Amino acid sequence: MHGSTAPAATVQLAAVASVALQPLLTGPVQSATLLGVSDHAAWIGTGDEVIVVSDRAAVRLPNALELAVEELGRWISNSDDVSVGDGIIRLGGLTAKARRWFDPRPSLGWCEKSQLRTNLERLRQMIGPVDGSGLFKALTDGDTDAVLSSSLILLGKGEGLTPEGDDVVAGALASHLLLGGALGRRLPYFELLIRPLDDLTRTRTTSFSGALIRHALRGRVALPFAQVLSALTGRGDLTSATGRLVAVGHSSGAALAAGLWIGGSALTLENDS
Description:
- The chain is of the alpha+beta class.
- β6 (82-85) and β7 form a beta hairpin.
- The protein has an eight-stranded mixed barrel with strand order 1-5-4-3-2-6-7-8.
- It contains ten helices and eight strands.
- Helices cover 44% and strands 18% of the residues.
- It has two domains: 11-102, no CATH class; 113-269, no CATH class.
- It has helices at residues 22-26, 113-127, 133-141, 144-154, 164-182, 188-201, 207-216, 223-232, 238-246, 252-269; strands spanning 11-18, 30-37, 41-46, 49-54, 64-67, 82-85, 88-91, 94-102.
- α4 runs parallel beside α6 and α5 packs parallel to α10 (252-269).
């Protein structure tokens, strides 16, 4: 059990938080639920959102509130009461106040399709064969119904807080949206995906994974994922960025990379309409 060595006194810490959490964190104070604790993070559920309170060793997620501490888990007990609001998260004897903000949606510069195609081929060589041909074809065709059908097959497939199938879906949709922007592509069908996929994430997978997919649909991604996107558009070293992404979790990073390739490569094959 975490928290056995936590000090009894209240500890107040400054935090850097995702702008995606700003309305929730700065809104009225409300109670929340502690969903789980690890050595480096705690998962807090409130409404449809899952907030990840993490330390400096954790991967920066799009729904993160980061604290400049080490071994965050030792400060937290699974039985701690939680509240969120007024700029603060209170977690047992720990009080975290958002002092700075980061934007989890990367700003990618312009990219030529030929450059993206070449870099995506390099990515595929590094990550190996990619499964998910149904989702790849659906995105290539811009077929909303087919994207939904393919996503439904993948959602919840696998073990853990973020099943492998979820990571593929999140990676594919986020890269399709963000790299589409880098190419100057219009993606009218993408907007039609958001509401039905939002609904599916609430019933087909874990609350944490569902929240991450909903962020991905809006282009909000984990930092290692954003670094690969930047490298694909010619801003950063692709080899080192891919290595950092693949190293995330037991299988999450590899699945996210596979999804990233699917969503990006579909853009290089579809018609420029």
